[in-house]
Structure formats: C-alpha cells, structure tokens
Design a protein that fits this description.
448 residues, alpha+beta, 13-stranded antiparallel β-sheet, 3-stranded antiparallel β-sheet, 36% helix, globular
Length: 448
C-alpha cells in the first residue's frame, strides 16, 4: 500500500480518536455558567421554556419544576434542546433574586474567578484565546501537508480528498474544544459595565450589565436590571399578592422575591409604603374601591411614602414598576457590545429607558389633563402626568416646562419630586442632544 495513503489513514484515525474523546468536554463556556441553574430560554416563534439547565456537549436539557401535561395528554418532565437548535434561541435568562443561598455563593465564586482570577486561571484564558486565534492557521497548514500527498496517484485522489475534508472538520473539533472566537476588543471589556444592543424583528433594545464572558455564539451579561410592570393587591393586614395570573413578569421564571421588598401598612385614612429592597421602584397608580388614581412616585431604597385613602377599604390595588435583576446570555448574531457604561445613582438603576414606561394616553386623556391645568395651573400631579405623555412623544421642550412647574410645587408630589427630577434629567439630556445635533447640522451646511 502506498505510504501516503497509510499516513492519511493514520492521521484520520488519530484525529478521530482524540477528537471523539475531547468532544465530550466541549461545552460553550457562556452556557456552562448557567449549568444547574433555573433559567428561562426564549425562542423564535415559540413559547419560552423554564427549567433547571443540564448542559452537555451535544445540547442541553431543561428539567421542569413539576411534570407538565401535554396537549396530547402525556406527561412531560423536561425539554431537550439539541445544539443544532441553538440558532432558534433569542435569549437565556437567570433570575438572580430568587437564587438559593448555595447558588448565590456559587455565582459569587464564579464572579471572583472570572474577574480576579489566579495566575493559573488567567493563563488558562490566555491559552484558550491563543488556541482560538491559531486554530484556522493550524487547520490550513495541516490541510496543505495532507494535500501534497494527493498528487502521487490518480486513483487515490477521491479517497484522499475525502480524507482532507474529514481531517479539516476533525481538526477544528479537536482544537476548538479549548477555544472561542477570540475578539481583542471584547476581551478588554470583560468585567466592565457595558451597554449591549440587542436587535430582533427590527427593534433594538439596550441592556446595561457586566460583561462576564463571550464565546463563538453567545455573549453573557451579569446584573441586568429589567423594568417590569406589576399589578398587586394589598390586604388590610399588609399581605401583598399578584392581582391576577396575567400580572406576572414579562420574562417567566421570576419568582416572588420582589414582593418581600415592599412593606405596606394600613392606617385609618392612609397607606404607608416602604421600600425595603436594595433598589428603587415606581408606584404608578393606586386603586381604591374601583377608582384609579395616578400617583407617579419613585420610592428609593429604604424610603417611605404615604397615600391618602378613604372609606376604610379592606384592600387596595397598586400598579408598580419594579426592577428585576437577571443574568442573561444573548446570541452574538443579534447582540453588539456598543458602549462602556456607568450607573450614576441608585435611581439610575432604571436607566433613562425608564421613560419608555411612560403611558401614552388617548387624545381625550390629554385634553382632560390640559383642561385641568387650565383651571388649576399649579396642580403638580396633573403636570407630571402631562409631562410623561409629552416625553413619550419626544416633545422635550414642553415636557421640561411642565416638570419645572411640578417641581416648584413638589410638596404636592408623593415622593417630594424624586421621580420628576429623574424625568427632568432625561429631558435635559434630550434637549442637549437635539441642540448639539442642530449645531452640527448648521456647521455642515455652512461648510457646503
């Protein structure tokens, strides 16, 4: 038998043997951080799936908390994702506030290892990045060496060509198990607070979080605060519960831990609401005996507000915007690390996108607010409601006027103007941006 053929077969055998052994260890390092945690996976054109992740080299399994009865009347205990189906994944989320004490400690240790690792951990990462960079070069070199053996015999061309293809694939499999798509730009941002732009269905959403890691297919962010609207009922004994099954977070899997951050007590003619959590929330409306009233107050961590009530109701309804804390993994095909970021104060955990939560009322609602202000120009609560509508429509200059007026009567506001100040900060930034854009446009026209 020709020596070149023997060499080719030997190389294929060795690479296949080593690659098969190492393939058992090949797991995406972003997904590996969520292994054995309760997560929710969102998919294209399909319902999200919630369960405890069990990760393998060929895919993952989400184990259900309780068995589920399928539409076809069989009981299911888990959902299996094969690696080929990862292309349909749009996001993987881990709800931080409901982690057990053990899992919190495990997450904290992983955090420390990632950002304050030992010499050996840093060396391992540097080696991994080097291997990822060198993989293509080594593969091409190996293909070149094998390719030179194909010219010796015409009858062996087909077999050797198949051998080259097999070697190319197996070599990437063998070398890729310790590597990732190395990006020096992202590498210097690992451990930093960044803004991640996520684009799906022509809609771009920005998330602020700490860049934990990245791989060929995914980007991992920690401590992302996502605003969620919560409708709750408060009983006179202080018990707080969701008002309906529909009053659940947008991202399933978020538990009830946020309820523990709201301490509410009834008085004879008032309601005291205390924020015992470590981040602020927004109190949007209060409903008493079927009558809804705008409140629009931000309650910072450790702060309290009092709301007047009448009729000695046994329960009241509250509409809140709370900040739920997630770790997330987003496919790189739809995500870009766009900026370094910073959070300036506890209020800004909401970030300026909080304004997107501003309600867009009907023209009749706007006309009603304007009529109230015409009759009572110093009504700070009504001015706030109108300003929020104008902000949502990006009418920043008029919104600024009404917010200034509301802050002059801050004694009428439940939170003493904290929320109005945050909105005014946003409006000022928008006006500054518009002014700067106008100035640059004028300068460009003058040059032309």
């Amino acid at each position: 038998m020709d020596l070149s053929l023997l060499i080719t077969l030997l190389v294929i055998f060795v690479v296949t043997l080593v690659g098969s052994a190492l393939s058992r260890l090949k797991r995406d390092r972003c997904l590996a951080d969520f292994d054995d945690y309760w997560v929710v996976i969102e998919r294209l054109s399909a319902l999200p799936v919630y369960g405890r992740m069990s990760l393998f080299s060929t895919g993952l399994e989400l184990l259900y908390e309780t068995p589920s009865l399928d539409d076809q009347l069989h009981i299911e205990g888990s959902f299996v994702f094969y690696s080929a189906e990862f292309a349909s994944v749009t996001g993987i989320y881990r709800y931080v506030d409901d982690l057990t004490a053990d899992k919190r400690d495990e997450r904290q240790r992983a955090w420390i290892r990632a950002f304050n690792g030992s010499f050996w951990i840093r060396s391992k990462r540097n080696t991994s990045n080097f291997v990822a960079t060198a993989t293509d070069s080594l593969t091409n070199a190996l293909n070149l060496v094998v390719g030179q053996t194909t010219a010796k015999a015409q009858q062996e061309e087909l077999l050797l060509a198949q051998g080259e293809t097999e070697i190319k694939g197996l070599t990437k499999q063998m070398l890729g198990y310790v590597g990732n798509k190395f990006d020096p730009l992202l590498e210097r941002m690992v451990g930093q607070l960044v803004v991640l732009q996520v684009t799906m269905d022509n809609l771009t959403t920005e998330y602020v979080g700490i860049l934990k890691d990245y791989s060929t297919d995914f980007v991992e962010l920690l401590d992302c605060y996502i605003p969620e609207e919560m409708s709750v009922i408060v009983e006179r004994d202080g018990t707080v519960h969701r008002s309906s099954p529909q009053a659940t977070p947008r991202i399933i899997g978020a538990g009830n831990s946020w309820l523990g951050g709201v301490d509410i007590s009834f008085g004879q003619d008032h309601l005291t609401i205390t924020n015992t959590a470590d981040r602020p929330f927004i109190l949007n409306t209060l409903t008493v005996s079927g009558n809804e009233k705008d409140v629009m107050a931000m309650i910072d961590a450790g702060k309290s507000v009092e709301l007047e009530i009448s009729g000695y109701p046994q329960s009241v309804g509250l509409c809140l915007y709370v900040m739920l804390r997630y770790d997330m993994i987003i496919p790189r095909r739809m995500a870009l690390v766009r900026h370094r970021a910073a959070r300036f104060s506890s209020q800004h955990v909401f970030g300026y996108p909080i304004v997107a939560l501003s309600p867009v009322h009907s023209p009749e609602r706007e006309e009603s607010l304007r009529q109230k202000l015409a009759n009572k120009p110093d009504d700070a609560q009504t001015a706030m409601a109108l300003a929020m509508m104008l902000i949502a429509r990006k009418e920043s200059y008029e919104a600024e006027r009404w917010l200034d007026m509301a802050l002059k009567r801050r004694d009428q506001l439940v939170d003493d103007g904290v929320y109005a100040e945050l909105l005014l900060d946003y409006v000022h930034s928008e006006i500054k941006r518009i002014t700067l854009f106008t100035e640059r446009t004028c300068q460009t026209q003058q040059r032309v």
